[in-house]
Amino acid sequence: MRHATTLGLDLDRTVIDAIPAFIDRWGTHPSWSRLLGSPVLYEQIEHQLTELLGCEDVLVLPTITLIHLSVIPVLAAGGTVFVDRRAHKTIYEGAQFASTRGATMKRFQHEDTDDLERLLREDRSATRLICIDGVNSMTGNAPDLPALHDLARRYDAVLYVDDAHGFGVIGERDPDELRPFGCRGNGVVRHFGEDYERIVLVAGLSKAYSSLAAFIACPPELKRLLKTAAPPYLYSGPSPVASLATVIAGLEVNEARGDAIRAGLWDRTERVLRCLEQLGAHTPNRSGFPIIEVPLARGHEIDAVGRFLFDHGIYVTLAAYPLVPRDEVGFRIQVTAANTIAEIEKLVDVLGKLANAFDLQPARRLDAATGAEMAA
């Protein structure tokens, strides 16, 4: 199977063919930090993203990791950072950096708003920041964003959302939209019909748009502050011109035929999920989004499973302990719009062979009395 970005734009001729004209005009690289030299391309992208997201303003920086390390300490402001225990490692890095500047980090249980509310109720900090993933990078599931947003409002906190894996794929809902992804690919906030009051959304343009760039959706006053307080804006080398070009071209493709691309992606994802269901194999994916984790019954077989899949032409991400809990050791399938139906059929065939050669965790059902998951 081909390894591509989620929307397959790294292989899209419209995007590829747009790059030379930008390089002819702007050169290969702006060279200086945005503070010293910020081509109008940035402003064009920020304007387009602001319209797409329906937020107040956007600031483009090179990567999500740099945003976490620079923005989380600014937002924490010496207060308390509440971090989902399963949030991405780079969020933890940002929270730990904030702690060196006087903030306190507290962890709450994944998908447990009661645990988070308990911590918020007990906290006496003047500033509270709640840090979560949008679409989780392993399970493919989205958080209960409306409930988390409600907590942020009630406890005078800011909800900081890393939507690296949702932006470009999921978006606002439409009464005529029959697929679970929604429309326009404008991220998890719009997908749940929420506004940006007390929400700061961070996302990258690499996974969906194949571009070395990221952004933060925020109020104008925070954007002005970050231009004086965020090291990536002040000092970091900027994104190459080719990456800025692919963002602009990619956003045009998204506007013209993005929903058709996402419809194909949904169809491909559904075929894989249906295969796992027929095999009686467990996946924590409840969303139908195109990240599909497949845990193994015996985690120590992960190397052999990875080799088996690779030898059969399937590239997956291995999830080993301690990157994931012992009972979740397995592999992650990332379905992309660039995968052909023939490639998906090959994947389905290989998964069947894998299930005959190794033990996958069996599918689970909810116990009617306790609500707990049990083997089916």
Task: Describe what you observe in this structure.
The structure is a single chain. This protein is an alpha/beta fold and 376 residues long. 41% of the residues lie in helices and 15% in strands. It contains 12 helices and 12 strands. The protein has helices at 13-26, 40-53, 64-76, 89-99, 113-122, 145-154, 188-191, 220-229, 231-234, 241-279, 302-311, 341-357, and strands at residues 57-61, 80-84, 104-108, 128-133, 158-162, 199-204, 214-218, 291-295, 317-319, 330-334, 364-366, 373-375. The strands form 3 sheets. The chain has a 7-stranded mixed beta sheet, with helices on both faces. Helix 1 runs antiparallel to helix 10 (241-279). It is globular, with a radius of gyration of 21 Å. The two termini are 31 Å apart. The mean pLDDT is 94.
Entry summary:
Helix 1 (about 15-25) packs antiparallel against helix 10 and helix 2 (about 40-55) packs parallel to helix 10. This protein has helices spanning about 15-25, 40-55, 65-75, 90-100, 115-120, 145-155, 190, 220-230, 230-235, 240-280, 300-310, 340-355, and strands at about 55-60, 80-85, 105-110, 130-135, 160, 200-205, 215-220, 290-295, 315-320, 330-335, 365, 375.
Spatially, the strands of the biggest sheet line up as 1-7-6-5-4-2-3
Number of helices, where a helix is a run of at least 4 consecutive DSSP H or I residues: 12
Largest β sheet strand count, sense and barrel closure: 7 strands, mixed
Sequence stretches where pLDDT stays below 50 over 5 or more residues = none
Shape: globular
Strand content: 5-15%
**How large, in whole angstroms, is the Cα Rg?**
21 Å
Question: Strand-and-helix sequence, N→C?
Answer: HHEHEHEHEHEHEEHHHEHEEHEE
Instruction: Look at the helices and sheets and give the structural class.
Output: alpha/beta
Please estimate the helix content. 40-55%
The beta-strand count equals: 12
N- and C-termini, Cα separation: 31 Å
